Amino acid sequence: MVKVDVPCPECSQTPVTRLDLIEGEIWICMSCGHQEIIAGVDIEAQLDILADHDPQLVAGWREALGI
After folding, report:
1. Contacts of 6 (CB under 8 A, 6+ apart)
2. pTM score, two decimals?
3. 2 pairs with which residues across the strands?
4. Residue 29 DSSP code
5. β strands within 1-67, DSSP E
6. Which of 5, 15, 21, 64 is 20 to 30 A (C-alpha) from 32?
7. Burial of 56 (0-12, 13-18, 19+ CB in 10 A)
8. How many CB atoms lie within 10 A of CB 33?
9. pLDDT tens for residues 3-36?
């Protein structure tokens, strides 16, 4: 997870948080909650793989993403 100094397209706040996944990225604005998911990214499958290593982190991301 990385803080990126770019404005959110919804509220223009910076920075946004970028989560690098195996096949893409998720961008999340911590100010307004806006999310952008790169097309073709299978978030559920990647979170399932990550759950084998860090179930608490996965639970937090599932809550943050609303899935």
Report:
1. 14, 15, 16
2. 0.55
3. 18
4. -
5. 2-4, 16-21, 24-28, 35-37
6. 21
7. exposed
8. 12
9. 888 899 899 999 898 887 777 788 899 899 898 8
For residue range 47-63, list pLDDT tens digits in order: 888 899 999 999 998 88
Tokens 């970028």 appear where?
18
**DSSP label at 28?**
E
* Amino acid sitting at position 60: G
Q: Which two tokens stand for residue 67?
A: 């899935």
CB contact at 8 A, 8 and 14:
yes
CB 29 within 8 A of CB 4: no
Sign of CA dihedral 47, 49, 50, 53: positive
**Six token digits for residue 63:** 């809550």
| The residue type at 48 | D
